[in-house]
Amino acid sequence: MLGTDSGFAVTPYGEWHARELEHYVKYLGFSPAEALKCATVNNGEFVRENGQVGSLKVGKLADILVINGDPLADIAVLQDRTRICEIIQGGETVQLDINANARRLRTEFSYDMWSDVYTQERISEIGMVGGQAQRAAE
């Protein structure tokens, strides 16, 4: 599943999902199609409507995001809000006004706070392996 940590102060809805998809591909070895399946079909099995969401099939409920780009070629295109062409929710197009001049407030730090990816290489780089940094400081 993807996005399971969303909906509270440090991970607001919509703030992390597209980036999490990229992490699945870049760091966990998923293909873009597998990562998208985690966010759609797999999540649909565990959320509202008892599996009636998450895939485009006759008789199921569907929300559709139309993107200018191919997330199967580059999953990161989903992080560019200017590429959103249309959102269809419950059969109706959602009117979306994207403010190209919008900037984060200084108090909106959650995205920056979670921007570092702690791979084994990164942990070694910052000296956190097995408490080595702490022992070195002592």
Q: What's the topology here?
A:
Blueprint: H1 17-28, H2 32-44, E1 63-67, E2 84-89, E3 92-93, H3 110-113, H4 120-125, H5 132-137
Antiparallel strand pairs: 1-2, 2-3
Helix pairs in contact: 1-2
- Mean of all residue-level pLDDT scores: 78
Distance between the termini: 41 Å
Q: Main sheet?
A: 3 strands, antiparallel
The assigned structural class equals alpha+beta
Amount of beta strand: 5-15%
Coarse morphology: globular
CATH topology of one domain: Urease, subunit C, domain 1
Unreliable spans are: none
Topology order in helix (H) and strand (E) letters: HHEEEHHH
Number of DSSP-assigned strands: 3
Helix content: 25-40%
Strand order of the largest sheet: 1-2-3
CATH class of one domain: Mainly Beta
Could you characterize the architecture of this molecule?
It is a single chain. The protein is α+β, with helices and mostly antiparallel strands. It has a domain at 17-95: Roll (Urease, subunit C, domain 1), CATH 2.30.40. It contains 5 helices and 3 strands. It has helices spanning 17-28, 32-44, 110-113, 120-125, 132-137; strands spanning 63-67, 84-89, 92-93. Strands 1-2-3 form a 3-stranded antiparallel β-sheet, with no helix packed on it. Helix 1 (17-28) packs across helix 2. The radius of gyration is 18 Å and the shape is globular. It starts with 16 loop residues before the first helix and ends with a helix. The relative contact order is 0.12. The model has no long low-confidence stretch (mean pLDDT 78).
